[in-house]
Amino acid sequence: MSTEYGFSLRLIIASVAILSGCATPQIAPLSTPDAQPEPVANATPHASPTVSVTATPELLPPEPAPAGATDEFKTDFSRHIVPYREILSGGPPKDGIPAIDAPQFISVSEAEAWLDDREPVVFVQVGEDARAYPIQILTWHEIVNDTVGGVPLAVTYCPLCNTAIAFERTFDGRVLDFGTTGRLRFSNLIMYDRQTETWWQQGTGQALAGEYAGRRLTFHPATIVSWQAFKAAHPNGKVLSPATGARRRYGANPYVGYDNPRTRPFLYDGPATPEQLPQLARVIGVELNGEAIAYPYDALAQVRAVNDVLGGEPVVVFWSPGTASALDAPVVAEGRDVGAASAFLRRLGDRVLTFKHDGERFVDEQTGSAWDLFGRSVGGPLVGRTLTPLVAVNHFWFSWVAFKPDTRVWAQH
């Protein structure tokens, strides 16, 4: 049996086991992004940034709905913007991977008992409300319907694309709740909202089919960082509790070896991936004012801080070691170190800063102030100041470029 075939078979078996009520690690159905969000320069730190709005795509002629969909959904499948042949079943049915609708949170000190320092968590902040969503939990649920700092948010994670994305749930004057469809597009999670049963692409926030077809959700910054980094920066933060009411083997990785560069994406049937990078190379993707760029983790690890201009705006990307891959070893905490990346505007007030890594920390050349991975000045003349975060999404190369074929790939000169 080939490695690829064996891996795919493990995914299918795990999905069936979950649906049968077994405690075997679950496999998540996912779908792929259509277009990457555009972070906007005027966003305030940790506030939900406005995503630039492009023209709504035209609806396609009616065609038969995806197989089995009309038995599970009340979606208006006559309204759609992508061919239904692009949508595949990931295994589990509607809500077979259960979203967390009533999340419980614990303190950093309580979470210390079960989180390893290198474990990846998704960091989301609104105002002073900073929260960590351990990927060891998100892997099994993929969606958390939450309210952070008074703002209704959906915190989502697609293991097959390694995309952690937060969306505002307030849409057209009402708060939406999201669940999993059990379908994928280009290996990326397709969500649905329970109010209209519109289908949404997780990677792009765009509605693929249903009442809202062609429209987009508003993105909010969400970053994959290590537990050590989160607790050091936010000792009073909140942590998603494993007390979810579901029987799952939190901490176990159902995608063992998935991010091995020699493997191929599961159920990927999309555009051919350019060979600039391996399909499963980690990148952080950013789009600003219509310009897209992928920053490869391997390149970021060499320089740690990248000063760039994107869409006419000065930006910086930080990278730090110490975060485990959630898709490598049988236990999430034991995954190899892949590091963590974040992106910000370099403009602070009326000046543009230039950053470097001095071997120990990030430092701006203008004032000598020290900065952390969260864009906060932690020492020097600018201590206490915060850079404006960009919507920058972790991706595997295949998923980013599938929807951003005109992307630039950053390389050190």
Quaternary form: single chain
Number of domains: 2
In this structure, how is the largest beta sheet organized?
A: 5 strands, antiparallel
**How would you write the strand order of the largest sheet?**
1-10-11-12-13
Global shape: globular
Percentage of β-strand residues: 25-35%
Could you say which structural class the secondary elements and strand pairing correspond to?
alpha+beta
* Poorly predicted ranges: 1-53
Give the N-terminus to C-terminus distance in angstroms. 43 Å
Number of helices: 7
Radius of gyration: 20 Å
Mean pLDDT: 89
Number of strands: 29
In words, what does this structure look like?
By secondary structure, the protein is an alpha+beta fold. It has helices spanning 3-19, 69-72, 108-111, 135-141, 227-233, 297-303, 397-403; strands spanning 87-89, 105-107, 120-126, 129-134, 143-148, 151-158, 163-168, 170-171, 174-175, 178-185, 188-193, 199-201, 207-209, 219-220, 223-226, 238-240, 282-288, 291-296, 305-310, 313-320, 340-345, 347-348, 351-352, 355-357, 362-364, 370-371, 377-379, 392-396, 408-409. The protein folds into two domains: 3-50 and 67-240, no CATH class; 282-409, Rieske Iron-sulfur Protein. The chain starts with a helix and ends with a strand. The chain contains seven helices and 29 strands. The strands form eight sheets. It has a five-stranded antiparallel β-sheet, with no helix packed on it. Strands 2-16-4-3-15 form a five-stranded mixed β-sheet. Residues 1-53 have low confidence and may be disordered. The longest helix has 17 residues, at 3-19.
